[in-house]
């Protein structure tokens, strides 16, 4: 076998901040203020064999990672790998208070997660800078908790931009900031700061085989993904009907994406019959304020919607062709959403770990084709039986809601399919599902799929390759007796028995 000479990269998982004198070219007070917006994240890593049978085992890690406060009510952005598989997330603030953290939502593909604490103290969101203006040799500060040394700092320069870094098989970072600051394993999730204490990146990876080479995710990218994570959270409670221009976050900060595409909060379109239409908002309007909160980016709008519900009024200030107007937005109840790709903190409910919310983006996804006839439905059912070893029957959204009433879940499903039979030694058999279980979602690295029909499973079987799924594994969400369960399946088309890729197109 031919060996390839590749850089060995390590995901860093500890924390950082600052409380020492810095060089004269740094603003000491503002760097120190950034410490109060940084937290330490600790917890027990848990490995589990499926969601049925087998005992959980846990290993304790002292000082797992860092996080950045982005809202005074206790919302924190960090790397997903910092809190991945943690049971009982523990968060410690710069002031020394400790809290239980809850995973709100996450995006595994970008390695960014949103967690929540309920603070007793006043929290100050970190000052956000502009990563589109970064240049080589700019001075930077990393703050953290390397090897358990709480709230340490180091300084260096930006030594490169737009670096693509393969960390592991299922995780690749794009357009990273390369820095010369010497950081150690344990720096993930904390802020990369400029000389005046503004966050310009999220420290995420380092090279094991080199000194003073580390990487951070640009803050513009982080805030765009963070806005989606907040939207997943707020869309559970209210709906406004404002649509913004889709931006490829992987291109943010490059010449392919203009600054105004994501730095100006301009409305792209208005959903018909929505609160936004009732309020008189128009495509092209620029949002300036929401309930006196200045709106610099989409994340700020969703911050304004936290804790809001149907019937609440949001007072907006908008700019329309250079003239400012005020508009009252009366929120509607949440629209039905399905399980989120980014939410990977789900687990066996007995573990007590929190479950993330639904993905707004899935509202616009095209569903799998309908069967169209009884004969076609029978052929589809046989196809799924041959491919996945499952016989299932649809469960309507109304029936699903009735059978899951009172279930502790932040997911919003549009129904499910009920398991009727499982073939021995099939792809799904390792999950040890039972007759009567409701299969609700299959979450791939590329897309979250709510499973409501047999044809949804056939749709996935046709694409059962790592290339089309976006990775070697998918997550499976199952409901059993009002308990939300999660398991993982490997993706390999060779494992699909008796199924031709050209069958039943």
Write a structural description.
Helix content is 15%, strand content 34%. By secondary structure, the chain is of the alpha+beta class. The protein is globular. It folds into three domains: 217 residues, Beta Barrel (Thrombin, subunit H); 94 residues, Pdz3 Domain; 147 residues, Pdz3 Domain, CATH 2.30.42.10. It has a six-stranded antiparallel β-barrel with strand order 8-9-10-13-12-11. A six-stranded antiparallel barrel has the order 2-3-4-7-6-5. Strands 20, 21, 22, 23, 24 and 25 form a six-stranded antiparallel beta sheet that branches. A hairpin with a 4-residue loop joins strand 22 and strand 23. The N terminus and C terminus are likely disordered.
Q: Can you tell me the CATH topology of the largest domain?
A: Thrombin, subunit H
CATH architecture of the largest domain: Beta Barrel
Uncertain residue ranges: 1-8, 14-24, 47-62, 336-374, 497-505
Secondary structure: helix percent: 10-25%
Walk me through the topology.
Layout: E1 9-11, H1 28-35, E2 38-47, E3 57-71, E4 75-79, H2 80-83, E5 86-93, E6 98-107, E7 112-116, E8 139-144, E9 152-168, E10 171-179, E11 191-193, E12 199-207, E13 214-218, H3 219-234, E14 242-244, H4 260-263, E15 267-270, H5 275-278, E16 286-290, E17 293-294, H6 298-304, E18 313-320, E19 323-330, H7 374-388, E20 390-395, H8 397-403, E21 416-422, E22 438-443, E23 448-450, H9 454-461, H10 466-469, E24 473-480, E25 483-490
Antiparallel strand pairs: 1-12, 2-3, 2-5, 3-4, 4-7, 5-6, 6-7, 8-9, 8-11, 9-10, 10-13, 11-12, 12-13, 14-15, 16-17, 16-18, 18-19, 20-21, 21-22, 22-23, 22-24, 24-25
Helix pairs in contact: 3-6, 7-9
């Amino acid at each position: 076998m031919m060996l390839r000479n590749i850089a060995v990269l390590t995901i860093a998982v500890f924390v950082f901040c600052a409380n020492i004198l810095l060089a004269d070219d740094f603003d000491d007070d503002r760097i120190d203020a950034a410490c109060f917006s940084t937290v330490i994240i600790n917890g027990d890593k848990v490995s589990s064999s499926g969601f049925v049978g087998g005992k959980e085992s846990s290993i304790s890690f002292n000082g797992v990672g860092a996080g950045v406060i982005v809202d005074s009510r206790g919302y924190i952005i960090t790397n997903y790998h910092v809190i991945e598989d943690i049971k009982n997330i523990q968060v410690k603030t710069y002031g020394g208070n400790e809290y239980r953290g809850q995973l709100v939502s996450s995006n595994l593909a970008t390695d960014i997660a949103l967690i929540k604490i309920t603070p007793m103290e006043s929290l100050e969101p970190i000052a956000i800078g502009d990563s589109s203006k970064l240049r080589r040799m700019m001075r930077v500060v990393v703050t953290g908790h390397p090897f358990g040394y709480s709230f340490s700092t180091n300084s260096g320069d930006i030594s490169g931009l737009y670096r693509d870094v393969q960390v592991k098989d299922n995780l690749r970072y794009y357009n990273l900031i390369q820095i010369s600051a010497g950081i150690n394993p344990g720096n993930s999730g904390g802020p990369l700061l400029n000389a005046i204490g503004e966050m310009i990146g999220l420290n995420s990876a380092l090279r094991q085989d080199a000194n003073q080479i580390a990487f951070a995710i640009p803050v513009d990218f982080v805030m765009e993904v963070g806005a989606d994570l907040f939207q997943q959270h707020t869309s559970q409670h209210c709906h406004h009907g404002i649509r913004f221009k889709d931006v490829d976050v992987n291109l943010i900060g490059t010449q392919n994406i203009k600054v105004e595409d994501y730095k100006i909060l301009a409305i792209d379109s208005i959903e018909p019959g929505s609160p936004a239409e009732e309020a008189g908002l128009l495509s092209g309007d620029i949002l300036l304020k929401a309930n006196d909160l200045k709106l610099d980016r989409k994340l700020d709008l969703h911050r304004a919607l936290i804790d809001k519900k149907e019937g609440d009024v949001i007072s907006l200030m908008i700019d329309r062709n250079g003239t400012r107007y005020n508009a009252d937005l009366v929120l509607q109840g949440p629209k039905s959403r399905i399980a989120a790709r980014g939410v990977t903190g789900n687990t066996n409910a007995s573990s007590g770990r929190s479950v993330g919310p639904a993905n707004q983006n899935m509202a616009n996804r095209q569903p799998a084709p309908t069967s169209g006839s009884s004969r076609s439905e029978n052929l589809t059912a046989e196809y799924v039986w041959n491919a996945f070893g499952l016989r299932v029957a649809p469960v309507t959204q109304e029936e699903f809601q009735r059978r899951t009433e009172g279930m502790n879940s932040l997911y919003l499903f549009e129904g499910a399919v009920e398991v009727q039979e499982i073939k021995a030694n099939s792809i799904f058999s390792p999950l040890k599902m039972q007759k009567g279980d409701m299969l609700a979602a299959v979450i791939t690295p590329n897309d979250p799929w709510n499973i409501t029909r047999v044809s949804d499973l056939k749709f996935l079987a046709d694409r059962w390759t790592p290339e089309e799924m976006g990775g070697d594994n998918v997550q499976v969400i199952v409901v059993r007796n009002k308990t939300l369960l999660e398991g993982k399946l490997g993706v390999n088309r060779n494992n699909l028995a008796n199924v031709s890729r050209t069958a039943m197109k």
